[in-house]
């Protein structure tokens, strides 16, 4: 939904909303930065999951971390293994809906959803055997929920490439192979242990059986170079191997790090084209960013002040938007990256909105309306009465993308819900208790 349409909408409904559950469709793309800045300044975060920034040494991981994390101060420099201990920072998930709702409710603050980013040391060939900084770093990857694999796609003879040349396919293979080796090693040890184990009760026996059969099929796939995530497992099997935190089970997004001059037209960069094909072969996400930091000398030498991602976080919001527009980019790759990561983790957002605050709540895809309400408080799940979905469109009906809103009602929430106030703009449908929110939203979107 465009911001223009939102602005048109606001005066037409210029009264505060009562606090109610609002579930809306996935974030629209415009003006994310404003949401981000406002969100960050609110200083409160609702829930956090971890995404690890992974890649060969010296490809721009820490530079990216500094770009994404407000006040990120990871050391980023032109030499391999610059990072040793992981850098950790929390970022708000940019979501323009948050601000629209906060304005509608005249909220005192807006609280975004969040993700934790972890900048991990570079991996090299043989890491699983202890090469480079070896196994210790693989264990840092084990602790994250998803992987952002930074792939160097910029040519610059001054920046050392550990393998001597920019070659995304080979870089990706090196990292993926190390993750596979590490999992193989872990699975073999675990299977050995399971052989000796004598489960006490039938429940533990069942669990161990599920674990063994899952690990055996994963092992077979790993031997053929296929990641654990490509193996189809039952929910019970997945649960039984969760404790192993297998590296190749984690979802991956490839992050193509390009020169800032390629940001407007990434397709013109042959390395990006190569990763695009690879990512679709591997069923993984791809985001193109330019993490480059222009050092002071370069800025002084080129009057034209090239701003790229790392510097965007230091600019006032209006200037960021102007700058991105001047590059022909409708929004920063970082906004995309953060949102993609969030979606990749299987996370979705709904909002509560009132005068005190508008807040993004994180739910897992597939939760039912009562379960989603239960994220706020278990009483809301127990006392759930109903939810309704509605299409909220501006009065002049010019905006083709409407906000989809689900309204929850619980006997624990006092006061009128607000559908009546909006009746001119609503199509009302009652949702059954067991309905899956996400499916409902996508069927409404179709
Ligand atoms: N898009 C880009 N274009 C040009 N140079 C870049 C780009 N991104 C990062 N760099 C430069 O690459 C060098 C290495 O960056 P950085 O320290 O972030 O890498 P790293 O992956 O964290 O390395 P390490 O694994 O050693 O910690 C820095 O000099 C940085 O300025
Ligand atoms: Mg680093």
From TrEMBL:
Keywords for this protein: ATP-binding, Coiled coil, Nucleotide-binding
Keyword Cell division recorded: no
InterPro entries attached to this UniProt entry: ATPase_YchF/OLA1, Beta-grasp_dom_sf, G_OBG, GTP-bd, P-loop_NTPase, TGS-like_dom_sf, YchF_C, YchF_N
Coiled coil: 177-204
A Pfam family per the record: MMR_HSR1
Any one GO molecular-function label of the UniProt entry: ATP binding
Domain OBG-type G intervals: 49-346
Transmembrane segments: none
GO cellular component labels: cytoplasm
Domain of life: Eukaryota
Record-given protein name: OBG-type G domain-containing protein
The organism of origin for this protein: Acorus gramineus (Dwarf sweet flag)
């Amino acid at each position: 939904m465009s911001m223009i349409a939102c602005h048109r909408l606001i005066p037409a409904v210029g009264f505060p909303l009562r606090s109610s559950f609002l579930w809306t469709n996935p974030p629209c793309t415009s003006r994310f930065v404003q949401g981000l800045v406002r969100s960050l300044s609110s200083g409160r975060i609702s829930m956090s999951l971890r995404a690890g920034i992974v890649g060969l040494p010296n490809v721009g991981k820490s530079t990216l971390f500094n770009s994404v994390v407000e006040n990120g101060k990871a050391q980023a420099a032109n030499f391999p293994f610059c990072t040793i201990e992981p850098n950790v920072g929390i970022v708000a998930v940019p979501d323009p809906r948050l601000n629209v709702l906060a304005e509608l409710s005249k909220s005192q603050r807006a609280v975004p959803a969040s993700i934790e980013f972890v900048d991990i040391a570079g991996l090299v060939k043989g890491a699983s055997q202890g090469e480079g900084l070896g196994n210790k770093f693989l264990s840092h990857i084990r602790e994250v929920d998803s992987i952002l694999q930074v792939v160097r796609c910029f040519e610059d003879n001054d920046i050392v490439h550990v393998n001597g040349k920019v070659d995304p396919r080979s870089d990706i293979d090196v990292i993926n192979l190390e993750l596979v080796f590490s999992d193989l090693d872990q699975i073999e040890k675990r299977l050995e242990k399971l052989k000796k184990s004598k489960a006490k009760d039938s429940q533990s026996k069942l669990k161990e059986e599920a674990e063994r059969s899952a690990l055996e099929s994963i092992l077979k796939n790993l031997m053929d170079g296929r990641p654990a995530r490509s193996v189809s497992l039952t929910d019970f099997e997945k649960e039984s191997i969760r404790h192993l935190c297998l590296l190749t089970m984690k979802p991956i997004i490839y992050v193509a790090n390009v020169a800032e001059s390629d940001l407007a037209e990434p397709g013109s960069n042959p390395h990006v084209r190569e990763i695009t094909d690879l990512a679709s072969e591997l069923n993984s996400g791809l985001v193109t960013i330019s993490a480059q930091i222009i050092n002071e000398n370069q800025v002084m030498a080129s009057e034209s002040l090239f701003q790229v991602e790392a510097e965007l976080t230091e600019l006032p919001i209006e200037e960021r938007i102007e700058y991105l527009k001047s590059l022909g980019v409708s929004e920063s790759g970082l906004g995309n990256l953060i949102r993609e990561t969030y979606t990749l983790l299987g996370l979705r957002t709904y909002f509560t909105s009132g005068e005190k605050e508008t807040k993004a709540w994180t739910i897992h895809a597939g939760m039912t309306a009562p379960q989603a309400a239960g994220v706020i408080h278990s009483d809301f799940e127990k006392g759930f009465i109903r939810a309704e979905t509605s299409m909220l469109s501006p009065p002049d009906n010019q905006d083709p993308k409407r906000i989809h809103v689900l309204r929850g009602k619980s006997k624990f929430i006092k006061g009128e819900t607000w559908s009546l106030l909006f009746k001119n703009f609503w199509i009302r449908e009652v949702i059954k208790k067991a309905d899956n929110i996400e499916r409902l939203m996508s069927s409404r979107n179709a």
